[in-house]
Backbone:
């Protein structure tokens, strides 16, 4: 009997409203609850659960080790691959973040796209959020793109894309959207294509 996604979605919403939902434990429960949505993606339910477990492990390790690093580092997880983005204070913090990212069981690859912080980071943060929001909206409203298959991170105007594309054409469509967004400085794709162009 298929698992209903409605109770899982309700659990995720409930976790957001409860005290402590932003704690590593709350994040772990929320990540597990979102497995229902991820199950509809190309990677399937088992991979979605594995990725949720990795994300929970990352939250736990970063939170316990270094609260500043926990706040500075963003991570996307797809098929056991962890993409690190964000700005960190020092090169030593970057090394520590990569070390922590390898620790959860099931991690197959760590992609380090962290940058050491500069004076423009705070100014660029709002613009980066705007770019990410714009791209996510483009993907959600395009019926030819399965938006649930992608994780998007934007750092200093560079768009990092991680996930699974059904076809090369779908990935090309996303790249066209990226190029049309103002203030984008670059595009880096770590997308696995299920059906490459012939």
Residues:
């Amino acid at each position: 009997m298929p698992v209903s996604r409605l109770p899982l979605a309700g659990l995720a919403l409930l976790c957001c409203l409860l005290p402590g939902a932003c704690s590593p434990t709350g994040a772990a429960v929320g990540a597990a609850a979102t497995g229902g949505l991820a199950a509809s993606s190309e990677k399937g339910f088992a991979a979605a659960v594995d990725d949720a477990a990795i994300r929970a492990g990352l939250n736990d390790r970063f939170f316990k080790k270094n609260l500043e690093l926990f706040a500075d580092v963003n991570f996307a997880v797809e098929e056991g691959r962890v993409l690190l983005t964000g700005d960190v204070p020092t090169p030593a913090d970057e090394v520590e973040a990569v070390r922590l990212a390898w620790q959860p069981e099931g991690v197959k690859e760590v992609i380090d796209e962290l940058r050491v912080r500069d004076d423009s980071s705070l100014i660029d943060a709002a613009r980066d959020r705007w770019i990410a929001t714009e791209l996510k909206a483009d993907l959600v409203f395009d019926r030819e793109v399965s938006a649930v298959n992608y994780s998007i991170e934007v750092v200093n105007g560079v768009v990092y894309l991680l996930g699974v594309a059904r076809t090369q054409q779908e990935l090309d469509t996303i790249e066209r959207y990226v190029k049309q967004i103002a203030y984008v400085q670059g595009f880096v794709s770590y997308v696995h294509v299920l059906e490459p162009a012939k």
Summary: Strands lie at 73-78, 81-88, 109-116, 150-155, 158-167, 186-195.
